[in-house]
Design goal:
Layout (H helix, E strand, L loop, with lengths): L2 H24 L4 H25 L28
Helix pairs in contact: 1-2
Length: 83
């Protein structure tokens, strides 16, 4: 999986997890929804961990490792070629 595909997986899992949170705000005792939330949360954490291991942290709260703030070493969004 390349960098963009993996980032899309992170975003999709995060979106699904967030949608379940919104649903659970109004249906806190829905056991099936709680199970789905756990599945999406675990999937998100797996994709996030894989992405940060291969490409560096996505946020300041991400795993910065022993190299400090790795994201500064990558091109900034405005330095990338337009798609």
């Amino acid at each position: 999986m390349d960098k963009q595909q993996l980032l899309n997986c992170v975003r999709a899992a995060q979106f699904a997890m967030h949608e379940m949170v919104l649903y659970l705000d109004t249906h806190p005792y829905d056991a099936e929804a709680l199970k789905k939330f756990d599945v999406y949360r675990l999937r998100y954490m797996e994709f996030l961990k894989q992405y940060e291991k291969e490409y560096g942290p996505l946020s300041a709260s991400g795993d910065i490792g022993s190299n400090g703030f790795d994201w500064v070493k990558n091109p900034w969004p405005w330095e990338k070629e337009a798609n």
